[in-house]
Amino acid sequence: MVSFHCRLAQMSRAAVVTALLATTAGCAALLGGEERATFDVVAPASFDGLQSGTSAQLLIKEPSAVSVLDSERIAIRSDAFEVSYLAKAQWTDSVPKLVQARMIQTFENSGRTRAIGRPGEGLLIDYQLAFDVRAFEAVSDGDSRAVVRFGVKIINERNGRLVGQRVFEANAPVAGHDADLVVEGINQAFNTAADDIVRWVLQRI
Asked: What number of other Cβ atoms are within 10 A of residue 161's Cβ?
């Protein structure tokens, strides 16, 4: 009899655990656990007329960004103050990490740098590029467009001096509200800004 009651208690506990797991899964779905489409940014691969180059080794730290942009969500700005996110869509990584990865790839694609990388990759750094992500979004205030804006500083790692600083902004049209069209516009704006940044940096160092 004791053995029967023990087995009954064990079965009851198992039933409670099963019910809790089912409830948790249900709550996750209600809280927005739906599957999202994941999108990437493609770095520019060609640089028409680029002649500048450098033998310096460059470092790009993870960019800084306000919390609304420090996210995998794709930002949509409806006016100067209100920001929402594209439904059921996300980037492959948080915006700062994505920008860092694609800017490194952009410099590599240019073929005009000796070496460029992240902290901890063992490079003997000559210059650091510090990025501040100020906009990486679509704007829907009547004129649908993508906006990318970066503050960029070049810092001499040997003496800590600021070599140059500049704000880069690029815009591109967004042809519709679908996620792929929004991402296409943001990618186009990023490509324009990234190309400008590479040319500026190579001229300054």
From this structure: 9
Buried b (16+ CB within 10 A) or exposed e, 89-126: bbbebbbbbbbbbbbbbbbebbebbebbbeeeeeeebb
Using CB atoms within 10 Å of the CB of residue 197, give its burial: 0 to 12 exposed, 13 to 18 middle, 19+ buried: buried
Instruction: Indicate yes or no: pTM above 0.90.
Output: no
Q: What token pair was written down for 187?
A: 């990618």
3-state secondary structure of 55: coil
Question: Which tokens go with 183?
Answer: 């991402």
CA distances (Å), 65 to each of 12, 70, 165, in order?
A: 50, 6, 17
Residues 133, 64: Cα–Cα separation, whole Å: 6
Single-letter code of the amino acid located at 45: A
The predicted-structure confidence for 88-110, as pLDDT tens digits, reads as follows 999 999 999 999 999 999 999 99
